[in-house]
Amino acid sequence: MSNPIVHWVDGAEFTGTADNWADVTNPATGVVSGRVALANEADAQAVIDAAVRAAAGWAGTSLARRTQVIFAFRELLNARKDELAQLITAEHGKVHSDALGEIARGLEVVEFATGIAHLLKGGQSPNVSTGHDVHSRREPLGVVGIISPFNFPAMVPMWFFPIALAAGNAVVLKPSEKDPSAALWLARLWQDAGLPDGVFNVLQGDKTAVDALLTSPDIKAISFVGSTPIARYVYENAARNGKRVQALGGAKNHMVVLPDADLDLAADAAVNAGFGSAGERCMAVSVLVAVDPIGDELIAKIAERTNRVVVGDGTKGYAEKEADMGPLVTRAHRDKVASFIESGEKAGAKVVVDGREVRARGGADGFWLGPTLFDNVTPDMDIYTEEIFGPVLSVVRVGTYDEAVALINANKYGNGTAIFTNDGGAARRFEQDIQVGMIGINVPIPVPVGYYSFGGWKASLFGDSHAYGPEGVHFYTRAKVVTTRWIDPSNRPEGGLNLGFPRN
Ligand code: NAD
Questions:
Q1: Domain 3-249+460-482, second-level architecture
Q2: What are the residue ranges of CATH 3.40.605.10 in the chain?
Q3: Which of 5, 152, 210 to mutate to test the pocket of ligand 1 (most atoms within 8 A of CB)?
């Protein structure tokens, strides 16, 4: 079989025993580039067992050594990021510069994790009661599972594993079966960085692999990112099996433009955030809320820019410039997004720019769809209610700021949002009024930096811990509080019987 993409266990490739494989395709050509192993239960158990064997040794490794390994990984990844970006483009389709961007955002979390010694420091209170001292410590959980989506095959796993590993856990990563090679590449890099074998493992597969992680008593926590129905399923089942769980789901991110905004900058932002990565980002802007009276002028500016977006094969260098936007991830997903465009048109929205007419610079059988701009979208249309996850930007026109806020707060998702305005008072009010986890003020994709935490509200996140940053450290560790009394012979306590509840 050409290019089998298998599991990674105990520092080596592992083919597994399942005779179940899925095609991996280059979306820019439509050509199958590899076949990924889909684990059965026995394969999943073999991967989990390896992680269990390695976990205690790694948890007992000094903070100094663990930190050195994270630093080494950071250096290697930075030096070799171009290789990883090429792998991402070949299986996901996003253009090379965009793939480098996702690695850069993952590197931020690696850099945050190099400070783990500081982040794990506990508290200490001497003499809380006569002769009694208290200190706290945070310890790793054991083996943790990470289940990631197709759209960020490197960054999303890196939201989690640098902190999980730095904190002393062993990891089983279950990547998306659509673009599984990045995970294997990262596993090899951990080995090169000096991580002991078995501490970082990759389990390839689909629902069977996910269910094995959700039900295994050896997996102590689950970090999931993907669509809302699966996030809910993972949250409920992981919790039912007694695990700590954070499950990040889908999104419908609104960008509000107030009449006083700089419309040229707002139009640039809408196009970049709407169509970057072909709209396959959980923080993509998919709804633009134009507050009267700027709708016509703003839409004209967005349409002009949308028509200039170059769609093409991100694996190729073009003489003039790289393509701005690549293909969609699979043919099925491309067709689903195209069917949303048909449905929006039928429902009465105005197609201002039609991505179905795209002329892409790429293979004839690539999964192409150009950027599409809809005007006059209303909240009852399915192009508004559903997460399309493609290059489709819907403009909803409203009369006032209050209508814009009410629209966003009524939406079932609450991942990201942005407001474009030069009115500081309005921006400040927005930040208080809006029921969304991540807010941009004149910033269209407000993904928090690595030392804050990432997470949405409502159907965009199940569980209470956000990803990475301080909440990531908290999620991958558990607390102990130790109360100590050492007997000083020169000042020996009286002792004696006293069955009352101890008071300080
Ligand atoms: P998905 O839900 O189809 O798949 C995510 C993971 O779940 C994959 O590893 C997949 O193998 C597994 N999976 C799929 N079906 C399953 C099932 N029935 N049972 C158990 N496991 C299953 O998501 P996707 O299409 O890979 O990714 C796109 C989605 O991810 C979008 O909805 C996007 O908004 C969301 N996303 C959210 C964030 C965030 O931070 N909130 C970030 C990135 C992507």
A1: 3-Layer(aba) Sandwich (3.40)
A2: 3-249+460-482
A3: 210
CA distances from 169 to 91, 130, 202, 247, 304 (A): 29, 37, 15, 19, 50
CA of 179 to the centre of ligand 1 (A): 12
- Establish whether this prediction's ipTM goes over 0.85: yes
Flag whether the pTM goes above 0.90.
Answer: yes
Tens digit of pLDDT at every position of the chain (504 positions): 689 999 999 999 999 999 999 999 999 999 999 999 999 999 999 999 999 999 999 999 999 999 999 999 999 999 999 999 999 999 999 999 999 999 999 999 999 999 999 999 999 999 999 999 999 999 999 999 999 999 999 999 999 999 999 999 999 999 999 999 999 999 999 999 999 999 999 999 999 999 999 999 999 999 999 999 999 999 999 999 999 999 999 999 999 999 999 999 999 999 999 999 999 999 999 999 999 999 999 999 999 999 999 999 988 655 556 799 999 999 999 999 999 999 999 999 999 999 999 999 999 999 999 999 999 999 999 999 999 999 999 999 999 999 999 999 999 999 999 999 999 999 999 999 999 999 999 999 999 999 999 999 999 999 999 999 999 999 999 999 999 999 989 988 888 999 999 877
Q: State in Å: Cα 324 to ligand 1 middle.
A: 25
Whole-angstrom CA distances from 249 to 146, 227, 407, 412 are 14, 5, 20, 11
Q: What ligand 1 atom has the least distance to the C-alpha of 152?
A: 43
Q: Which residues line ligand 1 (CB under 6 A)?
A: 147-152, 156, 174, 176-177, 206-207, 210, 225-227, 230, 233, 248-251, 282, 387, 389, 415, 456, 460
Q: What are phi and psi of 30, to 5 degrees?
A: 80, 5
Q: Which residue has the tokens 């961007």?
A: 101
Take residue 349 and report the two structure tokens written for it: 């929205």
Q: Which atom of ligand 1 is nearest to the CA of 460?
A: 41
